[in-house]
TrEMBL record:
<keyword id="KW-0822">Tryptophan biosynthesis</keyword>
<feature type="active site" description="Proton acceptor">
    <location>
        <position position="47"/>
    </location>
</feature>
<comment type="pathway">
    <text>Amino-acid biosynthesis; L-tryptophan biosynthesis; L-tryptophan from chorismate: step 5/5.</text>
</comment>
<comment type="function">
    <text>The alpha subunit is responsible for the aldol cleavage of indoleglycerol phosphate to indole and glyceraldehyde 3-phosphate.</text>
</comment>
<comment type="subunit">
    <text>Tetramer of two alpha and two beta chains.</text>
</comment>
<keyword id="KW-0456">Lyase</keyword>
<dbReference type="InterPro" id="IPR018204">
    <property type="entry name" value="Trp_synthase_alpha_AS"/>
</dbReference>
<dbReference type="InterPro" id="IPR002028">
    <property type="entry name" value="Trp_synthase_suA"/>
</dbReference>
<dbReference type="GO" id="GO:0005829">
    <property type="term" value="C:cytosol"/>
</dbReference>
<dbReference type="GO" id="GO:0004834">
    <property type="term" value="F:tryptophan synthase activity"/>
</dbReference>
<keyword id="KW-0028">Amino-acid biosynthesis</keyword>
<dbReference type="InterPro" id="IPR011060">
    <property type="entry name" value="RibuloseP-bd_barrel"/>
</dbReference>
<comment type="similarity">
    <text>Belongs to the TrpA family.</text>
</comment>
<keyword id="KW-0057">Aromatic amino acid biosynthesis</keyword>
<feature type="active site" description="Proton acceptor">
    <location>
        <position position="58"/>
    </location>
</feature>
<dbReference type="Pfam" id="PF00290">
    <property type="entry name" value="Trp_syntA"/>
</dbReference>
<protein>
    <recommendedName>
        <fullName>Tryptophan synthase alpha chain</fullName>
        <ecNumber>4.2.1.20</ecNumber>
    </recommendedName>
</protein>
Length: 254
């Protein structure tokens, strides 16, 4: 469903826009309203972060949001249960971004089953290397949930080939070296890097990490299939600043 949703957007001449939100930041009772409003303003899919005590890929903004969510008692189990309670109202794909430990604590089969009930169509596990994918892959396959791979700027050509072949739904192309967070500038070679990724990939290639302005969205939309915006969205939602959120979404449609 994720790949189809992105391809439909591309067929319309736009680029995919995927906001990242932190489950439980502001309380899980806000999750439904946030997701339905994002759906209404035209996002392609939504990436939902599950708070974790050791979030190795997260920059300061998302790490703080995760800490707030943990203080609210948010867990993988409670997030999936909350999502399941209104899954019938969600018409766009949801992607869960979670670390490996919570999945192992839940059990791969139970996690995949509960994720399916919650309307999850894809999973990103940033601390699970490709070589360990067997831990979860079969369980996700049974529930038709895509296992999305991250590809870094420093990945050599052979590694890119392997990751592109293994990824499902879309490729999450990391645009900076390091953790998430808003950036003011990016490497000069990004366009060439994305050309390599798109040549190697049979599925859409989305850009993520550091994208924080409408100008960034437009820039990356010119050489990728879409963007994932995290820290800026998390910050805007924490301040109930929907104007900023909508401006970012609109930039993907121009």
């Amino acid at each position: 469903m994720i790949q189809k949703a992105i391809e439909q957007v591309l067929a319309n001449g736009d680029r995919a826009f995927v906001p990242y939100i932190m489950a439980g930041d502001g309380g899980l009772e806000t999750l439904k309203a946030t997701i339905l409003r994002l759906q209404k303003i035209g996002v392609t899919a939504i990436e939902i972060g599950i708070p974790f005590t050791d979030p190795v890929a997260d920059g300061p903004t998302i790490e703080l949001a995760g800490q707030r969510a943990l203080k609210n008692g948010t867990t993988l189990k409670s997030t999936l249960a909350t999502l399941a309670s209104f899954a019938e109202e969600v018409t766009i794909p949801l992607v869960a971004m979670t670390y490996l430990n919570p999945i192992l604590a839940c059990g791969a089969e139970k996690f995949a089953h509960d994720a399916k009930q919650a309307g999850i169509h894809g999973v990103i596990i940033p601390d699970m290397p490709l070589e360990e994918r067997a831990i979860i892959y079969q369980a996700l396959q049974q529930e038709q949930i895509a296992l999305i791979q991250l590809i870094s700027l420093t990945s050599p050509a052979e590694r890119i080939k392997k990751l592109a072949a293994a990824s499902e739904g879309f490729i999450y192309a990391v645009t900076v070296n390091g953790i998430t967070g808003a950036r003011s500038d990016f490497a000069d070679e990004l366009e060439k890097h994305f050309a390599k990724l798109k040549a190697a990939s049979p599925i859409p290639v989305l850009a993520g990490f550091g994208i924080s302005t409408p100008e960034h969205v437009k820039k990356f939309a010119s050489f990728s299939d879409g963007v994932i915006v995290g820290s800026k969205i998390v910050d805007a939602l924490a301040n109930d600043d929907w104007e900023t959120v909508e401006a970012l979404v609109v930039a993907s449609k121009q």
